Amino acid sequence: MKKILTLIASVCIAISSVAQSSSFSGWPANYGGVMFQSFYWDSYQDTQWTNLTSQADTLAKYFDLVWVPQSGYCNSLTNQMGYADIWWFDQKSAFGTADQLKTMISTFKSKGLGTIADVVINHKNGNTNWCDFPTETWPGHGTMTWSLADICSNDDGGKTKAAGYNVTGAADTGDDFDGCRDLDHTSANVQKNIKLYLHFLLEEMGYTGFRYDMVKGYAPKYTKLYNEDAQPAFSVGEYWDGSASKVESWIYNTGKTSAAFDFPMKYLIKSAFGGDWSKLSNYASSSVAGNSSWAQYAVTFIDNHDTGEPASNADPQRANVAAANAFILAMPGTPCVWISHWKKYKTIIKKCILARKLAGVTNTSEIDASETGTTYGGFTLTVKGKNGNVKLLLGGSTAPTTGYQLACEGDNFKYYVSDGLDISGINSITDEPAETHEIPSFCTVADGEVCAFFEVPSTWGNVSKINCWAWDSKGNYTGNKWPGKTCTYLGTTTKGNKVYKWTWDRSYVSASGATASVPTYIIFSANSGSPQQDDMTFKNGNYYGLSEVYGNVIENTNGISTVTRTPDGTSEAWYSISGTRFSNKPTQKGLYIHNGKKIVIR
Predict the structure, then answer these.
(1) Which domain holds residue 496?
(2) Which of 57, 263, 500, 580 has the fewest CB atoms within 10 Å of its CB?
(3) What is the pLDDT averaged over residues 5-31?
(4) HEC secondary structure over 114-132
């Protein structure tokens, strides 16, 4: 027995020494900051460096860190998000020039905002072929060169070798990434190049910290190696896994030199915010932020550029996105708010952030277990801040709120903070006017017609054609050959965006012999299928944008004001659905409002 106890003791000491082997911490304790993810897939306009720079004052009022997409040049300045990285020292991209990026970062820094670089070092793309990584020099600091020995020998499951490239690096120390070359992190040359790159991002570009992409692709000890060398103020890894213990193990094996995105928390929220609030009681075992031993290293989020729910997904969580954001903004960990949610629920999120900061909730705050749970129905969360407590009532919770004042509320949630805290700043926040999209008058629907309209985003630039792909669970309504049917150009909006229309020609392809009704889902795409819109739920007459429905031509649901009436009950004039007033009955074909009714003139 003595030998066994001695062995156990020695193992514990060894584990402790590994955990404490690094004096560098990749995420500070007692940190009260909130992160902002400034992009979604194809967010080329919203995420232009100049556009983000212009928002610095507003962002700095609520956020402390801004995560931006991979900023190195990928041999294209359009339709390239940066995750097939080629150049590391050349920082022009689809989001702007290197100078514009530097200006944004320095402007943010002057406002107290740190910029988080998206670091893609699991894999790399060739310049003109699969494996020809370019030689690059950072003047006065060093040159990076590459060879086939820097690529994993089993890259792409052996496809790279089969294609004629004799890659001779060691076997991959993590998951393979299909499509780019997996770097061999055991290579001294790879390590040297990555270290140089990270110093470049911090010292030359002015970044504050790193978001490491696809860290499952290489052993966590290399993240430790790179962080201990570069010493970023913040480091967070994309360890995409729903198991809290696995994410915590990755953090541990980086020597705690990095935080991790709390994917387990994301999946917990997804399962609970459809209305089964009781599942949130598993927060301690089913999330990193809910475990007091690891909350310091948890970056919580609802969705990101990869996980954002498509409109075709009928998951009830979609109706509780604001409540889900309120939840992570009350929990320990460091919350990361996604730009798409920020744009849609800006007022609510602003208030929740201010409430969190007012109470002094940090990434290591304590959850009051005695007041947290489902005793009062729904779910109640109470967290102890440095200045007071926050209490979040979700669903139908009727928990007592004596000693608290209401700071913010929305569908299925109420966010309270302790009495005595000054919430005047929260109450002063007013709703911002919603972004409107007028449906042009040339968009019409004939009797019996099944159709949809698409406004081409300005970020897509000049496109040769627009396609439609529509389907249901049994078959396809657009030929069943991607990218589907070519749409008809109708005209341009007052903002200059082109509008296209797809009309169902009654064709239907189904392997099961099913009978067609109307599509369930729809996607519009450009050129030969790229870029493409998010998956959308189909409704006849819908007028679609990139990721949302702007209105419906048949129902006139685009926010046009009600037509005023004269005392005798007749309307004063004819109106187009875009709101244009006509003194007399229009002579052009189209959909109009007259006498309080929608009228089609053919």
Answers:
(1) 451-552
(2) 57
(3) 56
(4) EEEEEECCCEECCCCCCCC
